[in-house]
Design a protein that fits this description.
Blueprint lengths: L19 H9 L10 H4 L4 E6 L5 E8 L2 H20 L9 E8 L8 E7 L5 E8 L2 H13 L6 E4 L2 E5 L4 E2 H7 L5 H21 L9 E7 L4 E7 L23 H10 L2 H21 L1 H11 L7 H15 L10 H14 L4
Antiparallel strand pairs: 1-2, 2-3, 3-4, 4-5, 5-7, 6-7, 8-9, 9-10
Helix pairs in contact: 1-9, 4-9, 6-7, 6-8, 10-11
Length: about 350
């Protein structure tokens, strides 16, 4: 974490539909099922107002409203989807829940809707998201579920993607306001950022600027424990520049980078990187059949522009000192080859 620069990801990512091989994978692992609400149904709102945060700042989300007939059709379906995600579809244990609010963001690639579900008995609430199903994003979700310490809940139905809400303090808020803490906690923060950087790099998850991840903070016996979790998977193995898969090179994360330079040395950083790769290797062994099916599903259609795949292959060839990446013309194969190469470098 010595150098920082700000390479910029593609401004407009190509949308990749879900093809038959990926659909078969989703069915096999019970991600695909018939849903009562499609993404296209969510677009039938008739009014939208800007959603402001507690300080009156525009959040880039809009709260949307539907006419009465639409609400009567839409809201029960959304409630059932929430029950599918959290109670195997058993509505009888969730009859005290209702749809409180629906927000829409036209800013992101997936143009998501965020549905707020509220508990009428105690006003506690939760969220889930309705998005367009993009194949590269689904690959990102699956790799996160398999190779990271985090489990991911999501469902698909044709061109609709449902994602659970990932709780945590927004990364940009954490980076700018919460890292000025006691030194013991700062070391733990730096350790987690090194591990997060390594997870993103090994599985080629790009664009992890601070507003694309959250920080889960857990009080411990002494101080806090920290877990950085990605919340945006649109840039899974899409870009041609290797630096875009390393969160340390985004200027939005500079405060974390500088903190790491102050609190841990290079030898300790290498230790943390080695630890994370060893853990990833264990996850690969445990999920090898699922990963095999996932990569086989990805090879039947492209998930990134060929020019980006070739460019990334050149950089990976230099990084791994191996010419095998120069001959790869498919991003799914590139990710597979890169993960294998990273695991070859593990020392026990």
């Amino acid at each position: 974490m010595i150098e920082t620069r700000n390479d910029v990801p593609s401004k407009k990512k190509i949308f990749y539909p879900v093809h038959a091989s990926l659909r078969a994978y989703l069915v096999k692992y019970e991600r695909e099922m018939k849903l009562p609400v499609q993404y296209s149904d969510m677009l039938r709102f008739n009014l939208a107002t800007p959603l402001l945060d507690k300080n009156g700042k525009d959040t880039l989300w809009q709260t949307v409203y539907y006419d009465e007939a639409e609400m009567q059709e839409l809201y029960p379906g959304l409630k059932y989807i929430y029950a599918l995600m959290h109670a195997s579809g058993r509505l009888e244990v969730m009859d005290h829940l209702s749809v409180s609010r629906i927000d829409y963001c036209s800013f992101g690639n997936s143009k998501p809707f965020r549905v707020r579900i509220i508990n009428r008995l105690n006003d506690n609430y939760d969220h889930f998201y309705v998005k367009r199903a993009d194949a590269s994003r689904i690959y990102g979700l699956e790799l996160e579920h398999t190779l990271s310490p985090n489990r991911i809940g999501y469902l698909t139905d044709d061109d609709t993607l449902i994602e659970e809400h990932i709780p945590g303090l927004p990364g940009d808020v954490f980076v700018n306001e919460y890292i000025d803490t006691v030194k013991f906690n700062q070391i733990r923060i730096s350790k987690e950022f090194v591990k997060f950087n390594e997870r993103c790099f090994v599985r080629l998850l790009g664009d992890m600027r601070s507003y694309n991840f959250v920080v889960d903070i857990t009080p411990d016996i002494e101080g806090n424990q920290y877990r950085i979790r990605a919340i945006d998977f649109d840039q899974q193995s899409y870009e041609g520049k290797l630096r875009l898969y390393m969160p340390q090179y985004f200027k939005e994360n500079n405060n974390l980078v500088f903190l790491g330079m102050e609190t841990i040395n290079e030898k300790t950083m290498r230790q943390y990187q080695q630890e994370e790769r060893s853990i990833i290797n264990q996850r690969i062994k445990l999920g090898r059949y699922r990963l095999k099916d996932l990569f086989e599903a990805s090879l039947t259609h492209e998930i990134a522009p060929i020019e980006k795949t070739i460019a990334l292959g050149k950089e990976l060839a230099a990084y791994h000192k191996s010419r095998r990446f120069l001959d790869i013309r498919h991003m799914g194969k590139m990710v597979n080859a890169h993960i294998i190469a990273c695991m070859e470098h593990i020392e026990f």
